Amino acid sequence: MAGRAETERREPVNEQIVANMYTSMRSELNQIYSKITELEMEASEHSLVINAIKPLDPSRKCYRMIGGVLVERTISEVLPAVQRNKEGIEEVIARLNEALAAKKKEISDFEAKYKIRIRKPESESKDDGNRKEGSAQGVLVGPAGSSE
Questions:
Q1: How many CB atoms lie within 10 A of CB 103?
Q2: E strands, the chain, where?
Q3: How confident is the model over 57-104, as pLDDT tens digits?
Q4: 23 pLDDT above the threshold of 70
Q5: Nearest CA to 114 among 16, 8, 3?
Q6: Which phi and psi angles does 9 have, rounded to 5°?
């Protein structure tokens, strides 16, 4: 029975299930992108801290937030810890980039298998050629066919 359940999960029954699976996969892809961006920001902040405290006297006082508690240390104690944290973040980013590539391949295979093509709304495709930059700022547009 377990084999049958896996087959049903892999082979969708109708278009709605295919669409839901595709939406779920795209959502996972977006979550990976978001996490990578978040971690890249953290790595950047770590780099700023490292560059700021590296030239200073190693015996100078330094404060570090550990689990919501501000702790007094010296630069010689804090600098290696910040560098290790940055390296750990970069390793996680590398693993997430691998997961991102795998998810992109999975999505492209899924698109090929079920012949999925993303269509732009007609209004977007018509306006792309003659749209001025910033022309739609602050404009609220109602549903199509509205008489107001």
A1: 19
A2: 61-66, 69-74
A3: 999 999 999 999 999 999 999 999 999 999 999 999 999 999 999 999
A4: yes
A5: 16
A6: -70, -35
Nearest to 100 by CA among 38, 44, 36, 40: 36
Task: Locate 56 and state its tokens.
Answer: 């200073």
Which residue in this structure is represented by tokens 């570090």?
64
What domains sit in the chain, N to C, each tagged with a CATH number?
7-115 (1.10.287.370)
**Number of residues in the chain:** 148
What angle (nearest 5°) sits at the alpha carbon of residue 16, between those of residues 15 and 18? Answer: 65
pLDDT at residue 142 tops 60: no
* pTM greater than 0.90 (yes/no): no
Greatest alpha-carbon span in the chain? 73
